[in-house]
Amino acid sequence: MPSHETMQFLLSLGYTEAVSSGIINALLQNGIPPSSLFTMVKGLAGRYEVGEDGGLEALAASVKLELEKQEGKATVKIWCLPSTGWSPASDEDAGALPTVHSMERAFAVEALEGVTLTDIVNHGTGENSDVLAEYLECACSGIMACSTCHVVIHPDWYDATQVDGEGVVTTNHSVDPKKIGPPSEAELDMIDLAYEPQLTSRLGCRVQVTKELDGLVVLLPAGSNNLMDFVPFE
């Protein structure tokens, strides 16, 4: 059956059964005949072997968002402050932190708990998600292969305390659930390549929005370094 074949294909791409069912139902409800379902989904998947999506990711994100709403996930508000409202620390002072001087320039972004800042940029539908997308490029789609989703966490929301215990994993690498913790070594390697990295820098693809972080303040850099522009894909 087309639906079974399509389901197996979606599962092979890493989508959950719930999201896969949602994708299938959405296409059928929009008039795609069952006989064309598999062909349509494969077309939307694009050249998935090399990471070139044809629209399936956006559809899956929409389905996932709807499922999360049905699950009753909380809406979280974060504040994003453009570079005109804060100043990076001086390179000459190794221990200096960024300075905020005008929160009036900040704009609020709303998202459901559980998503990352990169998810908001790529698939967000909440308040000012599109505005945030104007500031963060997110060139590698969240696989931590670039630094274009680089953000700076307001010092009041950052906890540099390292999580104790080998193999221990916590949300946002933080001991305090109401703070953003320090980056992992792999993440730090990419942050070192970012535009004007700070002591409280993180990659947006590794910052997860949670209920405890309602009101989080994120500082947006004045620019980005996109090394993906220099990768020869052909």
TrEMBL record:
One of its GO terms (molecular function) is metal ion binding. InterPro entries: 2Fe-2S_ferredoxin-like_sf, Adrenodoxin-like, Beta-grasp_dom_sf. The keyword Coiled coil does not apply. Keywords: 2Fe-2S, Iron, Iron-sulfur, Metal-binding. The keyword Transit peptide does not apply. This is 2Fe-2S ferredoxin-type domain-containing protein.
